[in-house]
Amino acid sequence: MAQKNIYEYDAKMLLAKELPKYYPEFKYHNKLAIAESDTDLEQLVKDNPWIETDKVVVKPDQLFGKRGKANLLLLDANCDEMKQFCVDNLDRVCEIGNIRGTLKRLLIEPFIPHEKEYYVSITSDRENDIIHFSFEGGIFVEENWDKVIHIPVPLGKDINFFDLEGKLPDLGEYKDVLIPFIKGLFQVYVDQDFAFFEINPFAITEEKEIVPLDVKARLDDTAIFLHGDTWGNPDSPIEFPAGFGQTMSEEEAMIHELDEKTGASLKLTVLNREGRVWTMVAGGGASVIYTDTVVDLGFGNELGNYGEYSGNPSREHTEIYAQTIIDIITEKPDPQGKPKYLIIGGGIANFTDVKATFTGIVSAIKKSVDKLKKANVKIFVRRGGPNEKQGLELMKQVGEETGIPFEVYDRYTHMTRVVELIKKAEEGKT
Amino acid sequence: MEDYDLFDENSQAIIYGFQARAIQRMLDFDFVCKREKPSVAAVIRPTQAAAVAYHKVFWGSNEIVVPVYKTLQLAIKNHPKADVMVNFASFRSAYPTSKEALESDTIRTVAIIAEGMPERQTRQLIKIANERNKIIIGPATVGGIKAGAFKIGNTAGTIENIELSKLYRPGSVGFVSKSGGLSNEMNFMISQTTDGIYEGIAIGGDRYPGSQLIDHLLRYEANPKIKMLVTLGEIGGKDEYAIIDAIKAGKITKPLVIWVAGTGARILPAGLQFGHAGAMAGSDMETAEAKNKALREAGAIVPDSYEDLDKMIRQTFENLVKEGKIKPAEDFEPPKVPLDFNDATRLGVVRRPADVVVSISDDRGEIVTFNQVPLDKIIRENKSIGYVIGLLWFKRELPDFAQQYIEMVIKLTADHGPAVSGAHNAIITARAGKDLMSALASGILTIGPRFGGAVSDAAK
Fold first, then answer.
1. Domain made up of A33-110: CATH architecture
2. Which of B182, B214, B340, B343 is most worth mutating to test chain A (most A CB atoms within 10 A of its CB)?
3. Domains and CATH numbers, chain B
4. How many CB atoms lie within 10 A of CB A24?
5. Among candidates A115, A132, A114, which has minimal Cα distance to A123?
6. ipTM surpasses 0.85
């Protein structure tokens, strides 16, 4: 749980709904449509008749920028061109900044002819919310970053009593539009628990109306309980999509779902299905350190997963978690018959019951004895905390009963020494 | 208590949230530290009806009571010396409750345990704390511990762990980390490599922790009893650069052993949440490698990997002892906390005779049985009341006709009129094992206008 990106579509809709509360002159066209792989384009046009009457813009809405440079931006298009663009690009695999992914979602909106592009964004630090503004918006903002004006607004300051005008350069004829717009945007940012909001660029029409063209935003998803009324309804809450190219495997999706259901934490990211070093580590901090050590000792390319369980998960949930990882490890043995390693690791817990969580893991192991042997899996355990003796004893027993190679260590062995032991075992082999 | 101290052996806390286990663990810690007074002054349970109730806890082998208040306001009024609040409120209510505590005149330190507090709410609390010169530990943390003096909630886990990590008496090391889980690992590591922890704080893994690593390091620097510093940092954010600045400015002069975790992030997909909420490198400066390098260059003691952290700590401590800067803390045998009866039973070290013997139902296992038939089977197979009565009264599965007969009798006699107190009491008295006369007397004595009116009138 932390800061999460949202779709441009959702960011614009949220802005359209909230901004008029503080800046009533904001009249958004509200003309936004999404085309996905399974969208019936004829129906889409029927539902959004403006596509036929207006000229449109089509661009991917998958949390990546620089869409123009990637040739993924269709401007000033008619309805047929829009359809052709959708057909050409949806489901197409492409590479964006070294990440391969599939284009799955296109945003369609009216084309707004404009001459000048402006930049505005809001970010936060410990003591301030910071407004960033520039006359040089669009693709030029980065090279003109020194022209961006940064205005920290102390936390808790009512923006209506803040001298924004004095901090901005002469805005000329647009002063009466820009000042209330930025102040309004700031209030939406604060009230809706945004962690980042960037409009790059926005245009000002001849009627002096502001139109956001490209929007990027992050929400603080921990605040979802405060925004039941604006972040969608319980049936269709606002989405926090994974980044471009990051698709969840079936197993990851299942653990993710389990994680959302419980008060405890269960996380799993598969890095390399063919990897030979796997971790099942208790605790967010410890999981990072085990990963570090595996990488630092040169096994980065063999690391199968990143993940952690913490917050005293129930025996049942720990079992499902363990079983999921075991199933991936044992999917197929190493082609060269090399051993695989599973680290059941963790520090000394404050209150997570080692015996209870280990009971879950042991029962998954017992159900997978043949698989584990076939895949030549060696298991290394290191853990401490409430009921540690009984928990570690369970692990020793299951090793003895099943004949699976087990090495079990308690608090007197350095937390990550098992990684070094794996290294030694490997060096002995080769 | 000096400014650099958050707690001492007389500190008392108000616990927000009825966390019976954490409260008992705090008191057990107090007991092994030989504190004079318990560290828990009061508990807040907003859901209770009464303004004040009492909760029984153990103090060693004796039982004492801790007042449980409905509101923080009353607790503060009655316990003006308690200057710590340990806030177990959920992420939904952590903000208003912490705010109330920070705005009070008597609470100085607030530890927020809840995970998932909105960042803006935390930042608002930080602002209040700064203005009022107060300290927040957390959110999203287990808390912290001052060895031999005071511990927050569940920090350092069980009493066995506290004994093994020698947390019942102060050592010479000031420790601070982001991770709460690892703080306990480090407590133990430090107890094995040095004379132990003086104080250890986990600030929590959020992007905006209420107090930062540097805040605690500066406190430790000011404290003459702390001789060396150990810190566990984390990828993401720029907090560690504040430490570097402090070293360069000569504000931190004590030896600092530090490791910034997250060096493995380079092989992970971009954007993956690595560990805690605050753990995501936004720029090259925020990577673990960059921070470790910068710290090393500034003069901190930084191992090559976590694997060598314990060796570095040991070496630093031994050097300080050699230089005569540390006189290792003396150890003593802490008093033993008596085992809880339930724990002892589970371990098989105590037994006691039963008060009651029942030959029909059995609730010792996972599922209650009636005459050996498990309850879940009765429910699943939709057995009748007649069947259940057969098991309980006749210790057998009655044939269908008999079950139906019992059901019929129950239906017919379900209403025996209101207030059958006389018969009822006579039965209860008899079941209590009393003699016939007592049973009868007890029944007769409840005869009155609502029951047995006719008899009563006749007697008149």
1. 2-Layer Sandwich (3.30)
2. B182
3. 13-322 (3.40.50.261), 355-411 (no CATH), 415-460 (no CATH)
4. 10
5. A132
6. yes
